[in-house]
Each structure stands twice: as structure tokens, then as C-alpha cells.
Amino acid sequence: MSKLVFITGASSGLGQALAWRYYQAGFTLALVARRVAELQAWVDAQGISADRCRIYSADVAVSDSIVAAGQACLVDQGVPDVVIANAGISIGMDSAVRGDLDVMTRTLAINLTGVAATFYPFVAAMAARGDGRLVGIGSVAGIRGLPGHGAYCASKAGVISYCESLRGELRPTGVKVVTICPGYIDTPLTQKNTYGMPFLMSPEAFSDKAFKTIEDGSSYQVIPWQMGVVAKLLRILPNSLFDKALSGRARKARSTE
């Protein structure tokens, strides 16, 4: 019997690239998205066999919705070997604008609480089995706050810390928690950016690196490696130098821009 991977945000970008990489590796797919018709069209176009793929409709921003999708997967396909909490959004915000507080609420609901809600249905079952991978997709943007990116940076910093906490909790069970922090990947999420994106990587190249990281059970990995170096430098850069370096940097577009 082939292994099973459960992936959220599978209708485009990183989620789609990861789904294809895992399918090529022989895994059976449990794919989650709000845009089910779009995901089904992609599955059909790729020639993915129906006996190795099941699609679940869920809104990761609503905990009960994604929990229900996970529970349906347990009933229909069994306990996954890998769960990848990939669904995420990136929208700029301005704390002086009332409407952007709602943007932050939704960003945190999807990018942070959504990760915990994605993992929830599988934690006990994986622990009882004594094996599995829970994968949280963070971001280099979670290392330090970037102007205009308050909601996104806060959510991804939360993912990094949350996964670190969960890793310690599950260590005795044999379940591994993997945190992957992408740099700039060429997806619909980044294609609207108006600023420079160093070391831009294709989704296919990212998925190859991520697959190996997850299979190895590494606890934390920045992809590509060059952004890992940048991340380490950002951690140690004094605030005065960090603020000066980002002075005048273009901000992430807000929802109304």
C-alpha cells in the first residue's frame, strides 16, 4: 500500500507543486482546497489516477471546516504519513486603517490557527502509531518584521514558534514536526510583489528540496539555502541597522490596492 500525504492549499502554488512531487514519489494524495473545481481540473489535466487521489473541500480560515476535512480523510483514506499545512495568504496591512485589522484577523486565522487546525485530527492517531510527519510552512518573513507586512510576518513567526512547541511535545511519540521556511518562490502569492525578490526559486525546485527535507525528518529548513544565510544575518542584525536597511523599501500591496 502506498503512503498517504495530506496537503492544504493544493489548488495552486506550493501546494500544487508539492502534490505533484509526492504523486511522482508514489504517494496517494489527500488534497484540500476551497477552489475544488480548479483543483479537480488540475488533477484531471495531470492524469492523476482517481484511486490515488481524494479531494476535500475546506476553508482553512474556519477551524471546524478544516477539522472536518481531516476527519473525513481518516475515515476515507486512513492516517496520513505526512500532513503539510501549506494553505496561506499574504496581504499588506496598515495599522492606521480600520479595515486592515480584519485583514490581520483573517491572515492569522489561515496562516497560523489554520496550521494547528490542520494538524489536530491527526495528532493522536499519528502518536498512537508512533510515526508520521507534521509539516508547517513558515517563511523567511517570519524571522523579522518587514514594513507593510505586519499580518503576514506575525502569522509566519507564529508558525515557526508553534511548530517548535509542538515538536517538543511530540518528541516522545516518534512523530516528527518539520518547519519549512520558503524564501521567494515564483507563485501567484509572490507574482504581484513590486519589490526585488532575491534568489527567486521555481515551485518545482522548491518541492524537490522540501520533499527531501520532510523525508529526512529535519526539524527546520530554509529553502533555498541562500535565504537561510540571509535569515541568519537578519537574526543577528542590530535593530538600528535592520531599520536603516529597510528604509524606503516597497511595501506589500494592501487588499484595496
Question: What does this molecule look like?
Answer:
With 257 residues, this protein is an alpha/beta fold. The chain has eight helices and seven strands, in the order βαβαβαβαβαβαβαα. It has a single domain, classed as Rossmann fold. It has a seven-stranded parallel β-sheet with strand order 3-2-1-4-5-6-7, with helices on both faces. The termini are far apart. The mean pLDDT is 92.
Strand order of the largest sheet: 3-2-1-4-5-6-7
- SSE string, helix = H, strand = E? EHEHEHEHEHEHEHH
Structural class: alpha/beta
Rg is 18 Å
Can you tag this structure with a few keywords?
8 helices; Rossmann fold; 257 residues; globular; single chain; 14% strand; seven-stranded parallel beta sheet; 7 strands; alpha/beta
Secondary structure elements and pairings:
Layout: E1 4-8, H1 13-24, E2 28-33, H2 36-46, E3 53-57, H3 63-76, E4 82-85, H4 98-129, E5 133-137, H5 150-170, E6 176-182, H6 203-216, E7 220-223, H7 225-236, H8 239-246
Parallel strand pairs: 1-2, 1-4, 2-3, 4-5, 5-6, 6-7
Question: Concise description?
Answer:
The chain has 257 residues and is of the alpha/beta class. It is built from eight helices and seven strands; from the N terminus they run βαβαβαβαβαβαβαα. The protein has a single domain, classed as Rossmann fold.
